[in-house]
Amino acid sequence: MIRPTHEVEYEQMLLSRHTFMNQMGGRRKDSVLERSAYILLSRIRVQGPMSIGELSDAFGLDASTLNRQTAAAMRANLVERIPDPAGGMARKFRITEQGARLLDEEREGIVRSLDLVMADWSDDDIAAFAGYLKRFNSGIERIGGRPWPRP
Fold first, then answer.
1. Fewer CB within 10 A of the end CB, N or C, for the chain?
2. In this structure, what are the phi and psi dihedrals at residue 80, rounded to the nearest 5 degrees?
3. 94, 48 in Cβ contact below 8 A?
4. pTM of the shown model
């Protein structure tokens, strides 16, 4: 017997391969940020300045991976290193004005794509779908022990 979770798995696989948000090379045609930079900036925007250790804990990635990602983001002037605002020893990363602007542009591009996909959906259907996605993601975060702060 095929359980409903089999359908969820299949649809999730299909979602991950769609190109309207993920064109050739991992970017939409009008994309301004790489996926890893988009996620990194999104987390820092919601949580505030974060150290490599905090980012490592938040993403479940090793520090060397985060060092590469943050170094690339610094070269692109998306983030900058600052002293810990709370006075701690670790330096933290915060979003630059350019990083904030590009994050907003990227998010708006994704929203435009979603508007096209859901053009024939009612606002109630979109809100219900968003609620289910939030619930789904929250369940994954709970199991993984890495809750994502939401604005």
1. N
2. -135, 155
3. yes
4. 0.85
